[in-house]
Each structure stands twice: as structure tokens, then as C-alpha cells.
Write the C-alpha cells for this entry.
Amino acid sequence: MTQPEHSPPPDVAYPQKIRTFVKRAGRTSSGQARAIESLGNTFIHPYTAAPVSWPAVWGTDWRDQPVVLEIGFGMGDATAHIAQVLPDTVFLGCEVHEPGVGALLKLIGERGLRNLRIVQHDAVEVLEHMIPPASLDVIHIFFPDPWHKTRHHKRRLIQAPLVRLLCSRLKPGGYVHCATDWAPYAEQILEVLRAEPMLRNRSTHPDGYADRPAYRPVTKFERRGLRLGHGVWDLVFDRC
Ligand SMILES: C[S@@+](CC[C@H](N)C(=O)[O-])C[C@H]1O[C@@H](n2cnc3c(N)ncnc32)[C@H](O)[C@@H]1O
């Protein structure tokens, strides 16, 4: 019997894509569900496997503003804060976790924000297929999952091929801003960003880490870590 075209031959192990996340069980609260119901149509942009045009994403709110992509916004606290303090910038947030999408939509509703759109999809695929080349001014990656165990390191988001992809989507003169509270991951991020020829470290500190830019708020989680004596490392690299 012949195999359907999309099936691997029975004796060949099919390479599974390594994802940077696992779907968590977390429950969507009724407030988050209400926000998705009432605001989802306006602020969630469906994933498309073809490059988008920004006017199609922001509609009549689009006035050629700088575009920031945020990967993995979690519950969206930092995202909403930054969108509020930078009203003349537009933000596209990618997150796979539904309660997080609901939480950010709730903040959008409560604060009357207009300059944000959400794509609820794997950001790696969004970058690969949906974001046009050289179309982003900034990329934010705050506290990406550290994947502590050695056997899970392959799931870490910030690795050389992804950094190359980020660079291809950034405009020359744009920049990428990462933050982490896990020292070994900070070292890895610094190493792969430094190794990318299209990037230049903005930091002038001898250790290569940047001061926290004023727009990035200290989140509740981060404040707790700092109280416990944990470090936080910001990394800001310009796209040449
Ligand atoms: C440790 S949390 C940090 C959340 C937030 N940035 C913060 O600072 O609180 C990492 C988030 O990234 C999301 N994430 C991981 N890989 C992703 C991917 N490929 N696409 C979209 N979201 C992703 C996870 O669902 C999770 O919410």
C-alpha cells in the first residue's frame, strides 16, 4: 500500500520540531475569557503563513510608527506598561499561553490601549513566515524560559539560528533587547549575540551586559528575585 504524501516512510524516524515551550495546563480565568470574547476580534491577529503588511495588522491605527515585536509576553504586564509609556510605537506580542493572551487583553481594555496586537502562535514560526524581512525596529525577549536541565537546553529560544532569523527581520539600525534572571542563560545569550556578525553590543560595560533601559519595568516576579539576591541581566544589541 502506498503511503499518503504527508506521512514519513514507516522505517524512518520523522524529525520532530523542537519547540521552545510546552503547552501549560494553566486555567483561563473568567475575566480573561471575557476579555478574549470582547476584545479578541480587534486585538488578536490570526497567524498567517505568508508575510503580513503592517497596515493590514493595525488598520486605521497605522501611521508608519516604529514596530516592536515581543516574544513570549507571559501575562503581559511589561508589554502593557511599555505600550502605555510609548504611545507612538506599535507592539506585536507573540504568546502561546491562552491565560496570558487573556490577561494582556484585559490590560488593553482597562487601560484603553490601541497600539498593541497579539498573535497567539509559536513566535519562531511567526518570525519565519509572517514577519517580512527588515520590517521590525525592535525585538523584546524578556525572561525567556531558561530550561534549566541540560537535556532541555535544546529548547532554549536564544540560539545562533534564531538570532540569525531575528537579524533578518530587524531593520538595519534596529535592536534586540533581552533580559534574563538565570546566569548561565545570560552567558549563553551574550555569547550567541556577540558571535552574530550583524549585531553590535550597545553596552560599554566590561562584562558586556547593559543597564536596564528605563522603559522596561521591574516586574513583580523580578522584584521578588532581586529581594532574594538573584541577579537580572539585560542585553541590548544593535543590528548593523
Ligand atoms: C518565563 S515566561 C516570561 C514571560 C514574560 N516575558 C515575563 O517577563 O514575565 C516565558 C514565556 O514565553 C512563552 N514562549 C516560549 N516560547 C514561545 C514561543 N516560541 N512563542 C511564543 N511564546 C513563547 C511562554 O509561553 C511563556 O509565557
User: Anything to note?
Assistant: The chain is about 35% helix and 20% strand. Helices lie at 30-43, 54-58, 77-85, 98-111, 123-130, 160-169, 183-195, 220-227. The pocket of S-adenosylmethionine is lined by residues 20-21, 71-74, 78, 94-97, 100, 122-124, 142-145, 157, 219, 221 (CB under 6 Å). The first strand starts at residue 67 and ends at 71.
